[in-house]
Amino acid sequence: MSASNDPALQQGAGLGMRIGIELVVSVIVATGLGWAFDKWLGTRPWGMIVLFFLGVAAGMVNVYRAVTGVKMAVGFRRLDEASAPKAQDWDDEE
Amino acid sequence: MAIEIKPLEQFTIERIVPLHIGGLDVSFTNSALFMTIAVLVITLLTVVATRRAALVPGRLQSLAELSYEFVADMVDTNAGHGAEPFFPFIFTLFMFILVSNLLGLIPYSFTVTSHIIVTFALALLVFVGVTIVGLAKHGTHFFRLFVPSGVPAVLLLLLVPIELLSYFIRPFTLSIRLFANMLAGHTMLAIFGGFAASIGFLAIFPLSINILLVGLELLVAALQAYVFAILTCLYLRDALHLH
């Protein structure tokens, strides 16, 4: 339903839209979470510092997976490993 | 002559039918109105267009069939084996976001998806739903999703929090992506439109930019619906196919 019916282009455009925001949002949300923890537990500034770095790491992991691991499931497992039975038995198209 | 440009005015929520139940403001707003319109459009498209299904489909019927096949294909290739029962959900999600985005492009209409509370509610629905599916299918085994295999125990201390964080960040990235794209696009359109209103005959330049921008926004509207749906498929695959 995008500009062209070429599936490769569709995937590429979709991927491009995905990864840009992933890193930024990860850092912001994690830092905010750290701030909230500090406020709750009174551990300023440690929660914010630790979660900031974790957020950067999580964002990078997400981007890395989105880029290289289009064919990889979450826990570093390859797709063929993760979903061994390929989707073949619901071909009700024809 | 100074015309005040208010590019953010288009996002105001207005109460059409004020309604308060037990101290809760449940007014029928313009946002609710456009959600209703979106649902009606989708229902019309899928029900009316296929009621008299012809072997050689007409325009409306082929539109309905095209969107059905598009989403079916997406679920098939991205969510993998065992995701068929979730096709109706993903189809509904995709169509709702797509139609809301496209309706928002009509001048003087309201873009439902430009409000983070709407997109966050949708993303949270996906996130909670996928987690429940994973838990129901795998039980406590589901938590192995957060433990990468073949890693020394010391590193797990670092990796498990990262995995957890990258998992719980999903509803945020999912919702902010859609909301930010719609908000930015519509604000940009309004700013260029405002320019055009204030500079007389030179308005031809911002207006021609706006024409191009509407084209871009059409692409973004479709693409964001696609991205939202495809990510739902990918999350579903993670929940269904862990070892």
Explained architecture:
The complex is a heterodimer of chains A (94) and B (243). With 94 residues, chain A is mainly α. Chain A has one domain. Chain A is built from three helices and no strands. The two termini of chain A are 22 Å apart. The C terminus of chain A is likely disordered. Chain B is mostly helical and 243 residues long. Chain B has one domain. Chain B is built from seven helices and four strands; from the N terminus they run E-E-E-E-H-H-H-H-H-H-H. In chain B, the strands form two sheets. In chain B, strands 1-4 form a two-stranded antiparallel ribbon. In chain B, strand 2 and strand 3 form a beta hairpin. The mean pLDDT of chain B is 89. At the A-B interface, helix 1 and helix 2 of A face helix 2, helix 5, helix 6 and helix 7 of B.
Name the shape of chain A in a single word.
Answer: elongated
Query: In percent, how helical is the residue content of chain B?
Result: 55-70%
Total of helices of chain A: 3
Structural class of chain B: mainly alpha
Which helices and strands occur, and which strands form pairs?
The complex is a heterodimer of chains A (94) and B (243).
Chain A: H1 7-41, H2 46-68, H3 79-82
Helix pairs in contact in A: 1-2
Chain B: E1 15-17, E2 20-21, E3 24-25, E4 28-29, H1 30-48, H2 59-78, H3 87-104, H4 116-138, H5 153-168, H6 170-198, H7 204-240
Antiparallel strand pairs in B: 1-4, 2-3
Helix pairs in contact in B: 1-3, 2-3, 2-7, 3-7, 4-6, 4-7, 6-7
